Structures are given as C-alpha cells and as structure tokens.
Amino acid sequence: MSNTIIDIQNLNFSYNGQPVLIDVSLKIHEGDFTAMIGPNGGGKTTLLKLMLGLLEADSGSIRIFGKSPPSVSHQIGYVPQDVHLNKNFPISALDVVLMGKLRPGRGWSRYSSEDRLAARQALEKVEMDKFYDRRIGELSGGQKQRVFVARALVTDSQLLFLDEPTASIDTKGQAELYALLKDLNDTITIIIVSHDLMVISGYVKSVACVNQRFHYHGDAELTGEMVEMMYQCTAEETCPVELIAHGLPHRVLHKHEDE
Amino acid sequence: MIEALQFEFMQNALIAGLLASVICGVMGTMVVVNRIVFLSGGIAHAAFGGIGLAFFFGWPYLVGTIGFSVIAALVMAIVTLKAKHRADTIIGVIWAIGMAIGILLLDLTPGYNVDLMSYLFGSILTVPDSDIWMMVAVAAVIFGVVTYFYNDYLALSYDEEFAQIRGVRVNTLYVLMIVMLALGVVMIIQVVGLILVIALMTIPPYIAEKYSKSLVSMMVLSSVLSALFTVIGLWLSYVFNLTSGASIIIVAGVGFLISLGVEQLMASGLVKSVQE
Q: Residues A43, A49: contact at Cβ < 8 Å?
C-alpha cells in the first residue's frame, strides 16, 4: 500500500447550527485520482475547504502530509469552483498564474525570471500561452478555468484539488483537461469534485460519495452499483432523472440503508 | 492659474491636491477592486465624530479625526471579517453614529463658531504647512506598505481564498489596508470634504480600471486622473470664485461621463468595423 497523504478521521462540521458533514473518515493515498461526487449542498466543497484549512472543523482530525491543513496548504494546488470572481479586475492571465508562485513575506523582491518561465510553461500545458498577456476578464469561462488550472500547477504541489473544474468548459475542452489530469496523475495525487460521473469515470481511479456522511469510496469502474450510489446522492426523490448509459436501463433506486 | 500660484495658499492648495491625488490613486484603487466603497463612506462620515472631539477637547484637528477614524475603521474591519453578511448594516450604523457624535460635540463646545461647511465640502485653500507635512507622511506610509506587500495585496484583492492557501496573512493585511484607508480618507477630507471624498476615491479608479492591465498601472493612472481633476477643479474655483471641493468633484464627474461616452463610442466603433 502506498503512503497515506490525507487522513481524515471522524470529522464533523456545521454551518450556522446546520450539520454539513457528519462523522466523515477518509484516507487518500499517494497517486490516487479520486472524484468526489454528491448532491449540491452535500458538503463536497466544504470538505475541500476543510482540507485546505480555509474552514475549521467542529471536531475530528484532518492530517495532510501528516500535518494540520493550515500549515501545509501552500503545498496544495487548488482550482476553485467560481472562476468568475472580480470580472473587471485589472490583471493579466500571466499575473493570475504567478499567484501560484506567491511566497508571503517576500517583501520588496518580485517574481523571479524562473517564476515567470514556470508560469509561461504552466500556461503552455493548458494551451493558454498565447493569451498570457490578456486581461483575465476578456477570456471565456473555459479559458479562465484553464488559467486557474495553470495557477494550481505552477505551485509544484504533489496534491491537486479541483472544484468542478469543467463547469464552464465544452465537451472537447473537458476531454482535454481530463487527459491532462491523467498525465499529471503519474506524479501528482488529484482530488476532483464533480457531478458528472459519466465523464470522469473514464479517467479517475476511485470515487468518493459525500452527502453529509461519507458514503462510498472505491474503484471508478462505472458499475450499476456506482450509478445507483450517484443517483441516491443526487436525487432525494425516488425517481431519478433519465439516465443514459451503456447497458444501464433507467430504473428507480432505493434510499440509503442507513437513512 | 500661473498668477494665482504666487499666493502661498494657492501653492499649498496645489501641493495638498497633488498629495491627495496620490493617496486617492493608491487607496481608491484598493477600495474599488476590493469593493469596500461603502466602508470608505462609513469611515469618511464617522470621521466627523473626530472633528467634534477635536473641537470639544481643543485638540488639533488631525489628532481628533485620525484617532476617531482609525478606531471606527478598526471596528468596521473586524465586523467585516467576523460577520460578512451583516457588515453593511453595522457600517451604516457606525456611519450615522459617528456623524451624530460630531454634531452633538460641536453643539456642546462653548463658543463654537466653526464653519461646518469647510469640513463637509473641504477647505483646500486653508491647508496649513503642518497638514501638508502630515499628508506627505501618510502618503509615504501608504506608498511603502503597498509597495512592500504589493503581490500579497494583489492576491488578496483578486482571490482571497487562494491568497490564504498560499500563506498570505489575509486578515492582518486586510486590517492594515483599512487603517491606511482611514488615514487616507482623513487626508482627502482636507481637500474635498467628507461628503465628497467618496467621489474622488472612486471615480478616477473606476475610469482607470478599464484601461489598466495591472493593479499598479491602475494606481498610477488613477493618481494622474485625480491630479488632473484636482488641478482643473482648483483653477475653475479660482477663476469663477466657486467652492473648490465641489468644483473638483464636478470636474471628476464630467471626466466620468466622458469616459462612459468614449466607451460607448469605442463599442459602436467596434460594431461598425465588424460590419464592414
């Protein structure tokens, strides 16, 4: 078994008295490529933010590389869900990527030429290099998303979190991004939040289902059991939306046994 | 304008205006990109409490206003950090209470006969040398801090969460920014008064934002625009014998309208070239 790099035990988190995550335990190993799926409001993004040290748990423990999240957050590459923030902000794509090279307390010194080179290379990887000088607000949603992926890559992290990274990318762009992530996964551990199980299943190695509680963590083979799991997650109603998948008829699913 | 400059008060007014422009350019840019215009309005109006304090206790004007504004600003900053969704309400309350305290203290000040208008609409023509030195000091502090923490502020302003993940001490820097804002606002009150300070803090950065590719170029362009508005406004107020603060703001307002017009023209020009 390879090294455990994320170890979450009995984690509880509530927001304004409402429980968001209940007794979540989870282990992520080096080299994993895990998709975190679940309904809106199920706590996927919250779990990511807890792992990044942006939120503090009510109880339970999170260890990343054996340390507490705030002390290692700079070793995690993060692609946030909302890439449309501050649309009019005067900043070029390159400067957004350079944020990934930010080392606080650097004071008077500026980004080095190595930093700039690394930022350009990261942009190249996501095929955005020709836009490096563009204002971020002039780029399309999908282009922005790539720039944010480049910003996460340039941090040289061994761990990458992506929150719904394909929300504003077209199908071709999605396939390209997943192909890139698959390559990166040779050296980097990746956790991706998504709701599009059909697309990710071809790329990820395992799936974790989060809906307040932690439901399932296993192989990413698109099995009937997993689709069932997904739709138990996404729809509280017993009849899910129409489902198109090879060899899987539309069917009515049962509720979780523990509910 | 040239012959006007032989008067010392005119020279001081020009220097004060240019210093205020630099402060406005830098802090106004931070205000606009961080969307804390309302908070700066709160600080500006709460500063009136400081003016009242200064008169009541016979302190120098700047001691009262800086002290009061910085404290009000700190309260606002902490509230904004702790309870974001309630921040605008609390700022509104501090805004009103600050002004009320100022008025009551002026009422209670024996033999009070200060021209209230000069604080509401500025008194750039009566800025003494000592205040000019104070403005130099504040401008230098703001310039130094913003230069030193430029990349941290850039990240914090653009994407606070990412900045925090990178290890930027976002809360400390945010509070520091608000304190600098309070200092800056008090300085600019000298020039255009507390009612109009928001216009000078927001109009130049708003125009500059559209033509800037980076935060630093937005700061420089805002400063240049502020200086332009201030000088033209001062000149108009001298020639037509008008209130200087209001003249400066009207010039800025015209600048704002021109920039909107230019934007429209450019947009329609683009449409035409596409059609051709």
A: no
- To the nearest whole angstrom, how far is the Cα of B50 from the nearest Cα of chain A? 34
Name, in order, each residue with C-beta under 8 angstroms of B9's C-beta and a sequence gap of 6 or more.
Answer: B125, B126, B127
Q: List residues of B whose CB lies inside 8 A of any A CB.
A: 33, 147-149, 151-152, 154-155, 157-159, 161-169, 209-210, 212-215, 217-218
A60 three-state secondary structure: strand
Q: Is residue A247 part of a domain?
A: no
Pairwise CB contact (< 8 Å): A102 & B151: yes
Please check whether residue A54 lies inside any domain of the structure: yes
Contact B166 A102 (CB under 8 A): yes
A73 with B165: Cβ contact below 8 A: yes
> At B111, which CATH number?
1.10.3470.10
pLDDT at B150 over 70: yes
Phi and psi angles of residue A18, each rounded to the nearest 5 degrees, phi first: -90, 125
B192-218 pLDDT per residue, tens: 888 788 989 999 999 999 999 999 999
CA B111, distance to chain mean position in Å, is 31
Write the residue in B155, B161, B217 that is nearest to A54 by C-beta. B161
Domain membership of residue A125 as a residue range: 4-234
pLDDT score, position B19: 93
Which residue's entry shows tokens 């992290």? A157
* Cβ within 8 Å, pair B159-A73: no
Supply B77's token pair.
């900053």
Q: How many independent structural domains does chain A possess?
A: 1
CA distance A166 to A142: 8
Distance from the A183 Cα atom to the nearest Cα atom in chain B, whole angstroms? 24
Question: Which of B26, B162, B164 is CA-nearest to residue A98?
Answer: B162
Return the amino acid letter for A217.
H
**DSSP secondary structure of B47-90:** HHHHHHHHHHHT--HHHHHHHHHHHHHHHHHHHHHH-GGGHHHH
The SS3 of residue A199 is helix
Residue A96 tokens, joined: 């957004």
Q: What are the tens digits of pLDDT across the range B119-149?
A: 787 888 888 888 889 899 999 999 999 999 9
Separation of alpha carbons A3 and B118, rounded Å: 70
